[in-house]
Amino acid sequence: MTREEVIAYASERFSAEPEYLWARYPDAFVLRHSGNRKWFAVAMAVKRAALGLSGQGEVWVMDVKCGPLLLGGFRDTPGVIPAYHMNKTHWLGVLLDGTAGADTVKTLLEISYDLTAEKPRRKERNHD
Known about the structure:
This protein has helices at residues 3-14, 68-74, 102-115, and strands spanning 29-32, 39-47, 58-65, 80-82, 91-95. The chain is of the alpha+beta class. The protein has one domain: Aspartate Aminotransferase, domain 1, CATH 3.90.1150.30. The chain has a 5-stranded antiparallel beta sheet with strand order 1-2-3-5-4. Helix 1 packs across helix 3.
């Protein structure tokens, strides 16, 4: 998927619109929950060399929350790399250059969205 396809999918599936937070990086964006305002994705253009990738120029990468138990299962997936900007224990990166399949990108967005969703409050326990 491309960054434009991710934006369209997030809008349709999660009603999440990109937020452009950094003047220095005007094209970089975050996707967040409307209720708790937590990020579930951050995307930016990064120099290929900074990601340990061959070739010249930049590639779009999106970091998504995954959780330590799921990280290992995705590490060998084409287009999935260690997180660039976020904590590498709980987040991973996805290349938005077509290397990662659309199903992989959508699955990772779903997981990230669920992991960052507002948790239901526990009911007060009855101490009778």
